[in-house]
Amino acid sequence: MSVNRCIQITPVYVNVLYSKYLKWFIMQTRNFASSANNPLKMPDCKYVPSIYKGTNYEDMIKGYESIVSPSLKPFYKEPLIIHEGRGQWLWNHRGKRYLDMFGGVATVSVGHSHPKIVAAISNQVSKLNHVSSAYMHSRLYEYVTKLIGKFSGKLGVVYLTNSGSEANELAFLMARLHTRSHSIISLKNGYHGASYGTSASTAMSTWRYPFIAQPPGYLHAVYPDVYKGNWGGSKCRDSLVQVTGRKCDCRENECIASEKYFCEFEETFCFSLACRESIAAFVAERGAVQYPKYFLQKVYNYIHEKGGLCIADEVQTGFGRTGEHFWGFESHGVEPDIVTLAKGIGNGFPLGAVVTSTEIAKSLNSALHFNTFGGNPLACVVGSTVLDAKEESLQQNAQTIGTYLLNQFATFLSEFPNVVGDVRGKGLMIGIELISNIETKKPLKTEHMLEIFEVIKDMGVLVGKGGLHANVLRIKPPLCVTKTDADFTYAVIRRALQKHEEKYRI
């Protein structure tokens, strides 16, 4: 009887093995065929994705054009259907593999489909996936206790939200209630969300709709960009790679550009605020554009003297992405009154947070405040697991690989001086600004930028694009990328820039 069972099972087992290896062979063949014109070797990946069985490509395109919001503009001439992800890798519906160097806009922090997160979600959803915040549950307590452990000083109270926009809106509300003032000051070229209030604090024309009156109480101050701004030199930036071609007269513990930009920041109070009016808060993120040294310290001190609060937008820079510290503001030696979090906090799961002091948190007690999904058990489990996964030396990896990548990319400044104007960033938060004129720093033409963007994708690397003129390549991958991945990314972008120069005979 047992022998017969073996005889019956064996062919099935062989078929399963055959099917598995056939699928692997098909995937490898597709990857080989797609890279026939790309001699650069993509790093190995042992994971075999499943076969895509979803909606066909043509119907998906039509659906996005008709029933999905038309404001959602997919990247690339031939939009990608992303079917599966694992670690730093993504696969499209045809089985082609891509190295994800964008991380869903700096959102995937510990890697796609991290096994600990997959297990935690599965375990929690089988027990309780949602309960109103009118009730208590242990997952929320466990998570916020872990999260608070990542802060020091007065930052000891957490409010959970669903996104960065929500977190910043709540931070603005708390600041206004606490200070009994209304004005929120942000920096030009900064981004803080797409809701009504946060879009008003976002000082970029590309995020402004015509004919829509902006809410009152939002002011925009000078953006201290040492590459394109009026001031800045070769020693000013808080970055491994400094600005080239600009003289710097700064001395130790002193930055002339920082002082100049601060003086212009101070003028906002002289010309844009009502006489004797105090402000509610100053908010700033720290993206790939690095502020000059000591600038934030000067601003924070000034804001506090004026009775305002300082909000650190850590939606993109937090959770070790900059490598040097767990939070971006720590590298500037400042202590914010409120910190807003999202993106990497949930590794792609909708989760955001506002962290502040007990005194400021009490300001919400003057009326009812409620968020239906804030503190959702499933979200809390994900957030808690992300913090656990961060113990896998990911912050150190961000520092090591980010430093290595920045040094690699810095060679573009001398190799492609007529196309690459600036390389900047810290850790795994890097920007490569492409230009068409080295003297004026005029942005690279849109059609040329898109060509480079497409070539990089065709060679198997996904990056982002940003900046007011969308001429900056954004490198913000999952923090688990390797040195081999970094080498491949560098080689692909270098090849794309070479093709651009060959085509236009630069």
From TrEMBL:
GO process terms (BP): glyoxylate catabolic process; L-alanine catabolic process, by transamination
Stretches of the chain forming a coiled coil according to its record: none
Subcellular location, record wording: Mitochondrion
InterPro entries linked to this entry: Aminotrans_3, Aminotrans_3_PPA_site, PyrdxlP-dep_Trfase, PyrdxlP-dep_Trfase_major, PyrdxlP-dep_Trfase_small
Main location (coarse class): mitochondrion
Name by which UniProt lists this protein: Alanine--glyoxylate aminotransferase 2, mitochondrial
Gene3D superfamilies: Aspartate Aminotransferase, domain 1, Type I PLP-dependent aspartate aminotransferase-like (Major domain)
Organism, scientific name: Habropoda laboriosa
Any one GO molecular function term: beta-alanine:pyruvate transaminase activity
